[in-house]
What does this fold into?
Amino acid sequence: MIGKRETDIEKERLRLAGLCARSEQCEHDIRTKLDKTSLSSNQKEDILTFLKDNRFIDDTRFAGSFVRDKLKFSKWGKRKIRFYLFQKHISASVIDRAIDDIDDMEYFKVAFDLIESKCRHLDINSHDDVAKLYRSMMTRGFSGDIIKKALFKLQTDNEVI
It folds into this structure.
């Protein structure tokens, strides 16, 4: 029976190491996966320690990767990114550092491009459409200030033409 438990631990350790090698994982996600196994608490902690010691799990690296991916591919704003990282139980200081690494010009460009694409279907002179635009952008996690700046830039660029 003891031999079987050791192979279960080793199998789980290898499975999770493989998962972490394929994609960035945070400690909370791995802990959740471990909780679904029949291993004891000590065995789970041993696996987590192994993964951390061998740098399979690194919440700082995960947060940086998450921020870059969500900004670039999902076009999320800082607020939404922050919220989802808090749900992953990432510490506030790690989240702040990862979000501070966002280039302000790149962030503004993402917001501006989203607003520009949404304004193709909206009348930016209509109060209702502007309110709809603000709601849409705020659900993506952008602040009112960045929305206002991007909308102003769009309006002034259109007037010049």
Summary: The CA atoms of residues 16 and 33 lie 9 Å apart.
